Amino acid sequence: MSQDKSAPANDAGPMIAQGTDDEPLATNQRSLVGKIGLAVTVMAIAYTVFHIYVMNISPLEPWTYRMVHVTGGLFIGFLSYSALTFNPDAPVFDHHRSPIEWGLIGVAAIGIVYGAVMVGYAWAGRWFGFAPMPDAFVFGTYGIPLLIGTVAAVAAGWFFSDRDRERVHPADWLLGIAALAMFGYIIFNVGALRLRAGTGLAQAADFYAALVGVILILELTRRVAGLALVIIAGIFIAYSFVGPWLPGFLTHRGYTPERFFTYIFTDQGILGDPIAVSSTYIILFIVFAAFLQASRVGDYFVNFAFAAAGNMRGGPAKVAVFASGLMGMINGTSAGNVVATGSLTIPLMKKVGYPAKSAAAIEATASSGGQILPPIMGAGAFIMAEVTGIPYTDIVVAAFIPAMLYFVSVYFMVDLQATKLGMKGIPKAELPKFRVLARQVYLFLPIIILIYTLFAGYSVIRAGTVAMASAAVVSWLTPYRMGPKAVLKALELGAKMSIQLVAVCAAAGIIVGVIALTGVGARFSSLLLGIAEQNQLIALFFAMCISIILGMGMPTTAAYAVAAAVVAPGLIQLGIPVLVAHFFVFYYAVMSAITPPVALAAYAGAGLSGSDPMKTSVEAFKIGLAAFIVPFMFFYSHELLMQGEWMEIARVVATALLGMYLLSAAVQGYYFGHLGPILRIVLLIAALSMIEGTWYTDLFGLGVAVAMFVFQKRIVGPRAVARGAD
Fold this sequence. Notes:
- Residues 213-642 form the TRAP C4-dicarboxylate transport system permease DctM subunit domain.
- Keywords: Cell inner membrane, Cell membrane, Membrane, Transmembrane, Transmembrane helix, Transport.
- This protein is mainly alpha-helical.
- Helix content is 71%, strand content 0%.
- It is built from 31 helices and no strands.
- It has helices spanning 38-56, 62-84, 99-128, 135-159, 170-188, 190-196, 204-225, 227-242, 257-264, 273-294, 297-309, 315-331, 334-351, 356-369, 380-388, 392-421, 434-438, 445-455, 460-474, 484-518, 520-532, 536-551, 556-566, 568-573, 578-591, 600-609, 613-623, 630-636, 646-668, 677-689, 695-725.
- The protein is globular and about 95 Å long.
- The protein starts with 37 loop residues before the first helix and ends with a helix.
């Protein structure tokens, strides 16, 4: 790893992607090493190794494994927070904490340390065979101090958030210790908790452990994902207690705090499907992405795209469509992928003439599309398989055509805009040499191996592990060979990048648990059925709106988990197939990242391009508009989900592609020439007519497309030439 970073790999020419050993996968922050010490780095590596070992060699009991996953994520997350989101203007060490801050830290230290000591004492008694104090005393006295200390530490983080550049804030250490104390109690009593959690038999000590766990999860979610998901989770928690006073379908009998919080900390809530997927598939593929980063194979993907399409009109935008989609498929977060690849593609798009808001919007739209791109689909496919029981490989096959239509529609938007504005590409002299990169096509082997092993019958975990190992092996064919240091770095990055999704999945588990406990999901489905009056199209429209609203401000994983619990059951009751219903809500949960007014991916792109966030989100919505039609297309034509005869699938795909082009042309106002408002409306009607996928609607759309082509070429074109001659 001591290669000269300025040297092009294998003489491929000028390299566009120039990753460095100090760049994490989806941020430009520095490594944990040297920021919060070797010990925390070792913890991060151990966290990743533990998951890989358990998944492949020695499985653990599910509750225990998921608790280790959540607790490790909390501990590393709180300690990492000081390094990853520090105030760049803060001094190297702040000696002047206010008395109030020190007071909160003191209260937190007393309460959390006392609670941790009590739990540790119980464990020591079990391991060493002494128990001079009964469990009733030990666990009866740990809860209230631990809770008070945790609240004080959280308050210190809220109101005194300036972070030292080199050290972990004392409150963050205490929150990490609180997570360990909570974990110690739950694991100590895991057998009994399975029987009494969520019932009238729940103990006060159970309640305090679960309540502290919920507080810690929401605090870490606030830090790594923002307030939106925390507020939504808080509303659902409040709903569990105020239900008896609410009207209509929202009413329920209400629950005691003991029953509610202990129920939430079971496999019906926090330890349910989202965390089950996070602790297996998500972390595995995040580590896979980290190996691609450390081996520079990820850079090759971007360079290959630049070599193939960089010199075309609007070349950098077309590269963003391909490269951002490919990387977004792997790393699991739309906004994170915008930051990772947008720092490269957005400046180049601006260089060839794209406005700042368009450059950011294109990157955001392409990165969001990575979440629906098989075979990894940003981890969404794994949650869908877990929730529906549909085999993962079936979901991947069904996702192929909708993903293709999404990226084709974005490509059409980009190409038509470039044509309309007369843009050029990047000169070939400034691009990597395609013929050289083509000889390095073996660097695609990790992705090829992943796809092959999945369809050869390997489990998802085994396939992901083999692909991850292949990334390290392939690196030995390049100047950037992965040695022990690079492997350890990839493991560290994997842990660091998984923290956000651990917190998000746990917070989503809270919401899913409330829905299951209160039954509001079933009642909401009944309401949806009543409003739709058995009309599937109306139900789908409401489902689209609800999925987008639920997803605003939330990462895709959490957005889909909530939408699947609230919306999908009602669609299934209307007779819509399970796969179609879940794909429908998943698609719009992804689209929420580019839907105003809260569009996380677009906001991330705006930060890189210097454009106005709201204008950028509107532009992203416009560029992705054609993609908003795709779910209705596969609702009407199940052939788009690879269901049916091959000839019929081919026909539906061909007409869908034409519909995507017509819609893109109508949005951009360019169809073999500039379009006026009336012609754009005509073209839009033709495009929408092809949604249903029947022969007569397809023929109508095709007829309009041909007529418009003739009109533009034979009438509008000659007139423009004549005016130019005059």
